[in-house]
Write a structure and sequence with these properties.
This protein is an alpha/beta fold. It has 16 helices and 12 strands. It folds into 3 domains: 3-165 and 231-303, Vaccinia Virus protein VP39 (Rossmann fold), CATH 3.40.50; 166-226, no CATH class; 316-403. The protein binds S-adenosylmethionine.
Length: 407
């Protein structure tokens, strides 16, 4: 083993030991409420977010890479006909997942103690690979991503969540502070840290994060965020570079409106025309800098150079079937002039991301049933251009996904 291989192995061992002692997220034993949320509508929206160009089905294979305490079990529960595999290096996390498997009789779930860098040893490829909150803890994330890309089916979809740097600036300050003090994730050090953080100056960059994510002040959340042995973050260009290095193509952001300059406040700044002229990946990078507080990026990636499945440039949009995203809702209070409702997505954290709609648009939206195409919804030719523009806006604002399969 070379020195650098030994250094990587030492980091991996530290990370493994950390999650063995501090499984994260904390184990849960009751997924009843979670299961109730996953009705047919939510499943369809989830499917077409990953695969706009494929007809809906529910019998695909999934790998949850670094599945932690409950992620693989949740996937198996919400997709009972899918074949789900969970891998992790933490035996305590896998034990929590096994307990859920037993309790909910998840015969469609297999769990293995295996580092994701060795996913190829499963001897299988997957339609869907999920890896959230893991890659940034690996000693060599590029090698991890290549291993995941290698087990992704040709038409598969990878869902990846990694930390983002600017929104976590406060975390990185306090991580460095903790390192300098030699703090360890022991019960005593964690308790002292919780008390000490309450004395941070109110304008310290960590303070808004503590307010917005109360989980950070729990013992488990705090250890995971501030005392983790290995943690790196990806700016938008760094993430695009990592995907390209693993021969993966950017598909979409899980929630795209925050990354689009035509959505929300940036659209009415004097920079809007300049932003509009940038290529898409530069727009995303600019929005990360403009918004300033993105703490993570969740991206859907595909293998190779698959063409964009959703494109309003030609005429194909007429045959797209819009499917509503369940977290998208209409609000009818304090409406701007001329609006009959304002559409928001409850999972957005930026309050400028709302879409006011008029009465005609409300009628178009009400006709979305997950079966009719945009052309069928728009009806007579007079409305076609307005319908195209409206459905493109709904797409940008994370109100709908599309089934573009025509099947
Ligand atoms: C923050 S938790 C995220 C768990 C899960 N993905 C979720 O979103 O709930 C990170 C997980 O990655 C696991 N992990 C760390 N290094 C790993 C590796 N090389 N291979 C597989 N899992 C790993 C840890 O044991 C831990 O369970």
């Amino acid at each position: 083993m070379t020195d650098s291989e030994a250094a990587l192995a030492a980091v991996a061992a530290k990370v493994g030991a950390f999650y063995e002692a501090h499984p994260y997220p904390p184990a849960v034993d009751d997924l009843d409420g979670y299961a109730r949320k996953w009705d047919e509508g939510r499943r369809r929206a989830d499917f077409h977010l990953l695969w706009p160009d494929q007809p809906y089905r529910d019998d695909f294979s999934v790998l949850a890479a670094g599945c932690g305490t409950s992620q693989a079990a949740k996937i198996a529960l919400r997709w009972p006909r899918a074949r789900v595999t969970g891998i992790d290096v933490s035996a305590s996390s896998l034990a929590a997942s096994e307990a859920l498997k037993r309790r909910y009789q998840l015969d469609n779930l297999q769990l293995h103690a295996l580092p994701l860098e060795r996913a190829g040893e499963l001897g299988q490829s997957f339609d869907h690979v999920v890896c959230t909150g893991v890659l940034h803890h690996l000693p060599d994330p590029d090698a991890g991503l290549r291993a995941l890309a290698a087990v992704l089916e040709a038409a598969g979809a990878l869902q990846l969540m990694v930390y983002a740097p600017y929104g976590r600036a406060g975390i990185y300050l306090i991580q460095d502070y903790c390192r300098r003090l030699g703090l360890e994730p022991t019960a005593a050090d964690v308790l002292d840290l919780i008390v000490s953080l309450k004395a941070l100056p109110p304008d310290h960059p960590l303070v808004p994060m503590l307010r917005k994510s109360p989980d950070l002040l729990t013992r488990e959340g705090l250890a995971d965020a501030l005392l983790n042995p290995q943690d790196r973050a990806y700016s938008v260009p760094q993430l695009q570079g990592a995907l390209a290095a693993a021969d993966l193509a950017f598909g979409r952001w899980q929630r795209q409106a925050p990354y689009l300059p035509q959505c929300g406040a940036p659209a009415s700044t004097p920079h809007a025309p300049r932003l509009a002229r940038l290529p898409a990946h530069e727009q995303y990078a600019a929005m990360e800098l403009f918004r300033g507080t993105m703490a993570r990026h969740t991206v859907v990636a595909w293998r190779g150079d698959r063409p964009a499945a959703v494109d309003f440039g030609g005429q194909a949009w007429r045959e797209y079937v819009p499917v509503r995203i369940p977290d998208a809702i209409a609000v009818r209070d304090n409406l701007p002039p001329g609006a009959v409702a304002v559409l928001i997505n409850r999972t957005h954290t930026y309050t400028d991301l709302y879409l006011p709609i008029d009465a005609d648009q409300e009628r178009l939206l009400a006709a979305v049933d997950g079966r009719r195409t945009i052309a069928e919804i728009a009806g007579g030719s007079g409305q076609a251009d307005a319908a195209r523009d409206f459905f493109e806006q709904l797409w940008n604002y994370d109100q709908v996904v599309f089934d573009t399969s025509g099947g």
